[in-house]
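Journal club prep — side note

Before the paper discussion, L.F. wants everyone to see what a predicted structure for a comparable chain looks like in token form. Sequence:
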Amino acid sequence: MVRSPATEEVRRVAVVTGGSRGLGLAGVRALAAEGFDVAVCDLDEPEEGSRGLAKELSEFGVRSLYRTMDISDLGAHAAFLDDVERELGPVDCLLDNAGIPDRPLTDILDVQPSTFDRSVEVNLRGTFFLTQAVARRMLARADAPCRRSIIVISSVAAEIPSLSRSQYCLTKASLSMLVKLFALRLGQHGIDVHEIRPGFMRTSMTASAGGDRMAAAIEAGRVAIPRWGEPEDVGAAVATLASGRLPYLTGQPLWIAGGLNIQRAL
């Protein structure tokens, strides 16, 4: 959080990984609506990413920054965070959204080491070390004027197994433990760590991963709220957590899944 020299207005700063589309973009919009200046990293080229980001955020009157970065490139983290602090200010909220799905969907007995390793590099290793880097910088600001947060987008796959998405399930389950560990480490310093578990979301990623089966499950009553989840549903959760409106919550999964996780008796 920094003060604008012209107005003395206190401005909060958020970083969103994988923020150029889908759930990440919904998070960017929601954070901007809460008044956060937003820095985004994603795989798009700077010209494309910057134009899209500026267009999305212009109506909110917030500052933005876009950088091309693969979060599995650990050597790029420090330079990215330096840019954010120089252009916008210290980070008050990190939204860990970037991740890759299992493509093509593959039976657990046929998963190859190369695809497994790539999932771990991005979904788990990259997320862990970027979170670590941000947490260290947050701790260096002992006088921060607001309660800060780290929000991790996992998945219902963190708990509900899918034999055709095994490495995705494993990495998302590991993110749940990441959230618990960082919550324990950072809670006493006024930094909350949250996990959001989206369910059947209407995104391009979902469309390429058995969307017809998910639609059939919704139609069959598998989801208590019988509709697709929308990116804005996740954005609303991000805004609520980042704003501090749930001040006595940390280290717990928040299911944005319409009741998909509710077990039914036979």
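L.F.'s comment for the group: The CA atoms of residues 4 and 243 lie 19 Å apart. Keep this in mind when we get to the figures.
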